[in-house]
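Bench notes, afternoon.
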Amino acid sequence: MINRVSKGSALIAGFAVAAASVLVGSATSASAADQVAAATAAMRPYIAKPTKINQKVPLKGKYSTAKPWIIITCELPQCRVISDGAVAAAKAAKMPYKVTTYNTTDGATLTAAVKNALQFNPVAVTPIGYSQALWNNLQPLYKKAGVFITPMALGDSIPSSVVTQGAAGGPDYRKAGWVMANYVTSVSKGKAKALVMDVPAYAVLKAFGDGFRSQIKKGCSGCKVTSLDLTPAQLATNGVVPAIISALQKDRSIDYLVNTNGAFIGGLEPALKAAGITGLNIVSGSPDINNATAVKNGTQLAIVASPESQYGWIAMDIVLRTMLKMTVPLGDGGRPIQLLTKQNIGTPSTAGMTAPDNYQAQYKKLWGVS
């Protein structure tokens, strides 16, 4: 067996160790049993399927549809799901739009795409998934043009007079890492030896990893975390799986792999088998269909899922509120997330998590469109 799914099964089925009244102030201020109980209680709300979007306040006034919204996406499957959702949101809002692309292994293509977007005389531009550092120096050009930037799936965005709140930003990804840390603490009974596979160049992934590490440090004194930081070049040259195998061979005590992006570990399971590595529990953030299917089949343990198809709806909501000069809360109120194991994952879909089921109608009601 590659992983010990029975732990997660028992936990989700019964929650025998839940104790909502226990709070962990630091890893040394509570017993191991208290830490496990607190972690179990903390993650419990995220097992239920979300039923409401986090945006609550209806738009005030009528927004203009005279200028387009530019969506800058990448070649990864997750980017496609996100940008497809943005297109659907633009259509629902009756907002003109245009989709352009960049390559994740070549940051210069994103910088160029953000600069070139101004030629379309947009109202707003939304880059997906890459660091603000790559386009930050373009803010003066955007300010002069009267165009704002609404980042999406970006972990390090800093709002300004040009940059709005981001959709699915750093706080969302840190929270997802926090949820996974509580799950790993709970299911391992406070004894996990975790390898956190991260690509810090992608700020959203770093945010997930930081959220995981921070909560483990705070709430699991019996856990150990080893970080494996990889580069975009390793992604481009299929170097992720060999790097993971090497790290696991160096430390045979590791029993959890925490993967910040599910798409990056394709081919890992046969590589583990070839290397003779067993007893590894695989958990992921930003999962794809392969991770979800592996959880369903019992070869991966858990994922923290969020509705990537809805990120564009959150971004559209931010764009509309900004156009109307309305207040936009941090991350527009955040994205729904759910902890999925074999017990509650249902039938995996290439569309990923889509809950709440009627999110489109909920957004349309807020926007006053039919």
